[in-house]
């Protein structure tokens, strides 16, 4: 089996150590072997990005536009192939994998246009005879660190704006899903982007993350991952005055009021809590339900859950694929046990299920009789585990929804415009959904949260410009 190499300064470079990329739907299936970068190679990648930085920042916006458009065009043309690879290595269903690959292509297409729309201002000075020009410029070399749950979409929504606005990139993907990152890099490498502008280094964060974070040539870090690692990123960047952007997770509420459409509320809960095997930072892990509809909602939800097909991510008809790996499965099972010990009732699911091929399959779990003091309602599990919290009215629902250290996404199911308006106004989350799942966002609008979920300027859409550019004010005596 050929080894997939790192990409540094325009060349594919091997290493002395490789790891196997394992299919979570079939652990006997090896997706590929991927080279692990050394610290020395990370330094080479940073050096390449630093050397190429000035030239790319001064490159024409038409060149950047055409390169990003070419990347997006190829991704969309190969979305079936790329989606299949993604589902094979990460475990989300094929429909979800193809959808994510499509989203990545759309993101590059969007930022191809944004490269042409890097706006500024021309203002008169308060002093006669002076003109003031405000412009946006590239920040410089940027380290991009991404998670395994969206192995092509999240890299796309960080890499595309970085390149569009004239920055160079050192990209470290999650070690669990290198295949999608390598395939994306292969497309970028053939787009016409000059050598050194984009670099890929694969490997564990403990080994190759620190050199990137502590290198003064890296002027900014965009990170999506765990809260613990996010704090490390923040500390390292703050120590040397580098800018940083963090997306770290959520414990997202879905409020269900008694005037909801029951079928839609159940569909929102199932989609938000369990699709993508619950491995989304925007997942609806807390279902806050008004007591007068609680029993009917829970009964309908359980019926819907029992009909879900759990199986091979690539198989037709699969609703929920496997958990990403054994470590994540063990964590999920641990939290199921914690929920039981805390006094919650496990109404359905939570157990490992066997399939024809060996894999990390788990039946989605639903707890009832829970409250916000329980660990299963306070800590991010990142798996197909959801809890129901019974409340008396909207006031209590709002209190419970906001009673969390996180603030990424929140949803409400109601037919009342008054209740929806209040929820949108009072919800302490960066994204609010009304009669829609908490998971699922557009690429042309901002993404991000409040409190412990996010830090720094928003990602995606035109708001991405705030992180990937710096503002310069120039005065001219006329």
Summarize the structure.
This protein has 478 residues and is of the alpha/beta class.
Describe the overall structure.
By secondary structure, this protein is α/β, with parallel strands linked by helices. It folds into two domains: 3-248 and 453-477, Aldehyde Dehydrogenase, Chain A, domain 1 (3-Layer(aba) Sandwich); 252-434, Aldehyde Dehydrogenase, Chain A, domain 2 (3-Layer(aba) Sandwich), CATH 3.40.309.10. Helix content is 39%, strand content 23%. The chain is built from 15 helices and 23 strands. The strands form six sheets. Strands 15-16-17-14-13-19-20 form a seven-stranded mixed β-sheet, sandwiched between helices. A six-stranded mixed β-sheet has the order 10-9-8-11-12-22, with helices on both faces. Helix 3 (79-90) runs antiparallel to helix 6. 54% of the residues are buried.
Q: What is the CATH domain class of the largest domain?
A: Alpha Beta
What is the makeup of the main sheet? 7 strands, mixed
CATH superfamily of the largest domain: Aldehyde Dehydrogenase, Chain A, domain 1
Radius of gyration: 23 Å
> What is the spatial order of strands in the main beta sheet?
15-16-17-14-13-19-20
Care to count the β-strands? 23
Uncertain ranges: none
**What count of domains describes the coordinates?**
2
Number of helices: 15
What separation lies between the terminal Cα atoms?
A: 66 Å
CATH architectural label of the largest domain: 3-Layer(aba) Sandwich
Shape: globular
Would you tell me the overall average pLDDT?
Answer: 97
